Amino acid sequence: xxxxxxxxxxxxxxxxxxxxxxxxxxxxxxxxxxxxxxxxxxxxxxxxxxxxxxxxxxxxxxxxxxxxxxxxxxxxxxxxxxxxxxxxxxxxxxxxxxxxxxxxxxxxxxxxxxxxxxxxxxxxxxxxxxxxxxxxxxxxxxxxxxxxxxxxxxxxxxxxxxxxxxxxxxxxxxxxxxxxxxxxxxxxxxxxxxxxxxxxxxxxxxxxxxxxxxxxxxxxxxxxxxxxxxxxxxxxxxxxxxxxxxxxxxxxxxxxxxxxxxxxxxxxxxxxxxxxxxxxxxxxxxxxxxxxxxxxxxxxxxxxxxxxxxxxxxxxxxxxxxxxxxxxxxxxxxxxxxxxxxxxxxxxxxxxxxxxxxxxxxxxxxxxxxxxxxxxxxxxxxxxxxxxxxxxxxxxxxxxxxxxxxxxxxxxxxxxxxxxxxxxxxxxxxxxxxxxxxxxxxxxxxxxxxxxxxxxxxxxxxxxxxxxxxxxxxxxxxxxxxxxxxxxxxxxxxxxxxxxxxxxxxxxxxxxxxxxxxxxxxxxxxxxxxxxxxxxxxxxxxxxxxxxxxxxxxxxxxxxxxxxxxxxxxxxxxxxxxxxxxxxxxxxxxxxxxxxxxxxxxxxxxxxxxxxxxxxxxxxxxxxxxxxxxxxxxxxxxxxxxxxxxxxxxxxxxxxxxxxxxxxxxxxxxxxxxxxxxxxxxxxxxxxxxxxxxxxxxxxxxxxxxxxxxxxxxxxxxxxxxxxxxxxxxxxxxxxxxxxxxxxxxxxxxxxxxxxxxxxxxxxxxxxxxxxxxxxxxxxxxxxxxxxxxxxxxxxxxxxxx
Length: 802
Fold this sequence. Notes:
Elements: H1 5-17, H2 25-45, H3 61-65, H4 73-89, H5 100-103, H6 106-120, H7 127-130, H8 137-153, H9 164-173, E1 186-189, H10 196-205, E2 210-215, H11 218-230, E3 237-240, E4 250-253, E5 256-259, E6 262-267, H12 302-311, E7 313-324, H13 333-344, E8 347-352, E9 365-371, E10 380-385, E11 391-393, E12 396-398, H14 401-413, E13 422-426, H15 427-432, H16 454-459, E14 462-463, H17 464-468, H18 471-476, H19 478-484, E15 485-489, E16 492-495, H20 502-508, H21 510-535, H22 543-557, H23 566-591, E17 597-603, E18 609-616, H24 621-628, H25 630-656, H26 672-681, H27 687-724, H28 730-772, H29 776-796
Parallel strand pairs: 1-2, 1-6, 2-3, 6-7, 8-10
Antiparallel strand pairs: 4-5, 7-9, 8-9, 10-13, 11-12, 14-16, 15-16, 17-18
GO biological process, one term: methylation
EC number: 2.1.1.72
Family: Belongs to the N(4)/N(6)-methyltransferase family.
């Protein structure tokens, strides 16, 4: 059986537990990732004569396993595994597996490394079998680890990783997916870190391209090389060194040095690098990067990287660079560079991102999009403010799938139909603002204030403007407005139903009921063809391609639907894919439509095994029970309800008679034995006490009988459900997985979205009704009445209020 992605990630993350605490995450990531790399290349390339990576004899993962438990395991790993592998493949700065400061000494080091290797021995981590074409399971696992290492490393050491969602935005907005490309198409990242941004662009290209990257940190550049191999890009050229002072990719033209030019350039350089000019005189730059636009300030390197990118682009090249917001509005030398860039027409667009997205900093950043090809005819810059679209995840913010899609859609279509989100800004307007590109000057993304109507507060009545602000609802249900509101005076309305009846009035209104029914039908219109697609899946299909196709179809299906945001619907599917459906898809892609059960065996500290029941990854017991054993489950539910009532009655009886003089007051513990003994000791004259005791005794017997019956019923149902799995046909498995599990869950999620939309209207109408229900004269009268009552009470106490 193929390993689930979630289990793969869990297994890899558990390897970190062996090292966590002994060193910083930015250090132990190197050990874990190197082991992942060695395991992968050993499984995939060992013994292949023309493999893109060489596995020297004696330097594979199996040879590492043979070193487990040896007292000199660390030294042997360095000499027999790491050194030959690094030398054969030009991998440098790999971690020291014999470092006592990080791994401990003596037996501590032996056990730590032995346990670490054992985790990667898991038979399920056989990457030669578990990896499907076009579905980069290992690459995804690597990215999963990098993301978590970046989180754990904190602000100072998280720069080696660009969040996957931001990388995805960049990969799509530069247009490589829509361009005519070939293996000669070149993509370059001058500050590539671990290479995640480069790989996202390569993935978006859809066909092999040539990758180039340079990274200043030697250890991180080693990670980038390994990352390229893990993602099936072993020919990518990753150089180590300072891009600004010593660019690795250059050409000779006579006696002159030139930067190599690329089709696409992407980058996430260090923000506001204060040492960018160390070892470099901008006025004597041999590559003339600052000749046209000017030299950046000595202690503000953002434009240095951007100008390097522009110089590295072909005349028809495209680029995108992540920079801090300051580049949009800072003055002096940067203002002049910005003015010249704008006048050259190189800047196609600017995308403002939410704050706190990046692991190296919490400040907000933006993406500057460069397009040389169409610079001459450019009339303006497309600006997009996506700062409000994110979800908070722990201490950081994260772009959701819907946020990424919305950014990409608006930018690629140059769609400025939502001016609070995006708009095309002319060069004339920019020049009037002195070439300041700060987004708030051009896009007012602030939420409109909920205005308080003075006349409404003074005279009562809900303002017409507030009611008309709900025009989306009235467009769908025009008669609902007249059912809720009636005219008070010109421009003001009264609520025609009680506040407690608002929800009932809305939900029972024929037009609203019709709207909800129509939305259910709308989902079914999408579900029918998608059901056929899902049930037609055969082993070997590509899960990533599948989710792209059905998610895009869902998004398009809900475009322009009233009251509901298509991107919110899209997010429900993407969340479900990540949490559940993705694992199911990979299981089916590898093993077909099988619903195999397995026993859950746990080991205690002494190694003794204990059976904890059974499970099935694709089809849960609950799905089987719901479809085939509804009567049995109903019986269990009834007995459970009876048991709950009986237990509650017993608890009430004990509470009632546990006071100081109560029947149970003297009992240390209320149980069957104690009650039986009390009945035996009680005399005939204690009739009331005996009645209570016998009532408790009867309830206890009933409770015991119900518990026994419940246990028997649950065991019987468990046995029936377990026995059902081998009898399931492929048609039945598809029905359970597709109809009951996947699409049933998605339908419930979208229904919940409709409930949220409906509840929003209910709450808003109630809020408006409460806001203006008590006008000023009424408040004044009430205050006067209360003041009179207070004066009257004071007078009764002999005090006259002045």
